[in-house]
Specification:
By secondary structure, this protein is mainly β. The protein has a single domain, classed as Beta-grasp domain (Ubiquitin-like (UB roll)). It is built from one helix and seven strands. A hairpin with a 2-residue loop joins strand 1 and strand 2. The chain is globular, with a radius of gyration of 13 Å. Bound molecules: FE2/S2 (inorganic) cluster (FES). The site of FE2/S2 (inorganic) cluster (FES) has 13 residues, from loops.
Length: 95
């Protein structure tokens, strides 16, 4: 569905739910996940409906994931780093 518009200058590997994902060094976690084919980033606590990035600029909070054990991180505003561990969230973010 999504693909990069350019060849990345350097690459890193992040792990999404334990699956290795190759990413460009300068891209966001959300971009890397979308290019890798992830269409759901979290589940709504109200309806359990899958949620995915919408704005990609930090406004909608639809892209919340756990990054290196820290929940509720905005994937669209977080730049990848080699060895980063990302987990898709099953519940609504806490207070
Ligand atoms: S996609 Fe909207 S805040 Fe991340």
């Amino acid at each position: 569905m999504f693909r990069r518009s350019h060849t990345p200058s350097a690459g890193v590997v992040i792990y999404v739910d334990g699956k290795p994902v190759h990413a460009a060094a300068e891209e966001s976690v959300a971009a890397a996940m979308l290019v890798a084919g992830f269409t759901s980033f979290r589940a709504s606590a109200v309806s359990a409906a899958p949620r995915a990035p919408h704005c990609m600029i930090g406004n909608c909070f639809e892209c919340l994931v756990e990054i290196n054990g820290q929940p509720d991180r905005q994937a669209c505003l977080t730049i990848v780093s080699d060895g980063m561990h990302v987990r898709r969230q099953a519940e609504e973010p806490g207070p």
